[in-house]
Amino acid sequence: xxxxxxxxxxxxxxxxxxxxxxxxxxxxxxxxxxxxxxxxxxxxxxxxxxxxxxxxxxxxxxxxxxxxxxxxxxxxxxxxxxxxxxxxxxxxxx
Amino acid sequence: xxxxxxxxxxxxxxxxxxxxxxxxxxxxxxxxxxxxxxxxxxxxxxxxxxxxxxxxxxxxxxxxxxxxxxxxxxxxxxxxxxxxxxxxxxxxxxxxxxxxxxxxxxxxxxxxxxxxxxxxxxxxxxxxxxxxxxxxxxxxxxxxxxxxxxxxxxxxxxxxxxxxxxxxxxxxxxxxxxxxxxxxxxxxxxxxxxxxxx
Lengths: 94, 198
Hints:
The complex is a heterodimer of chains A (about 90) and B (about 200).
Chain A: H1 8-16, E1 21-25, H2 29-36, E2 44-47, E3 52-59, H3 65-79, E4 85-93
Parallel strand pairs in A: 3-4
Antiparallel strand pairs in A: 1-3, 2-3
Chain B: H1 17-25, H2 33-36, H3 39-62, H4 68-75, H5 77-86, E1 90-93, E2 100-105, H6 106-118, E3 123-131, E4 140-150, H7 155-173, E5 177-189
Parallel strand pairs in B: 4-5
Antiparallel strand pairs in B: 1-2, 3-4
Helix pairs in contact in B: 1-3, 3-5, 3-6, 5-6, 6-7
């Protein structure tokens, strides 16, 4: 099974539009190297081999970071309904 | 001001507190795009900037009257900041779909805990810790913070204010089950001008 192709900017914009998202960060180096074995999308990593979608974000401190993470996950689930793993990391609250 | 323990100041991203201190002291110029897009670095810069501002205010206001332990206590804060930012535990967030894994970085939460409590006038946070199995949803955890307070403040009232702010931050941003919030006043210092009066 392959994930639908997702232009980086479109997916990044999708995540940035989620309520409470302040920023989207590039993947860690290790994640990017792992992604290079499949398909690399620099900001939102969609790895067809592992069937995962991964995103690192900053949440707005005026909101609720946990709820923001859930909102982003729901958006990604809707965008990638066949993904086996949706991974949302809130790495900063600003 | 720089962290003193060079062996323990490496962040998860590979950069050191020393590097970031120097970048901050240079006014974040020339702009380093990698640092400015790295959440660990941004958390560190925020904490370092706050500590730097607070320490400058503290020492400028009445350095001569400070009891000796206060200077030492304050100097150790940078090491605590480094330890907070280096911790890489992931705090899980509930979601009904088993294919979803959401986490909040412990470093991000501890940065926010420090920020929320440091905003109180006359309060300087020393150490913040989240004790317990934070990576297990539903496991009880204890928040432990230390502080120095102005000697004209009511310690019990300050501790209650700090506890309230921390409880709010944790409830709003995480799914942690907080069993207790321990606040230890471990030092006092001379009263300072209000933090919002710059």
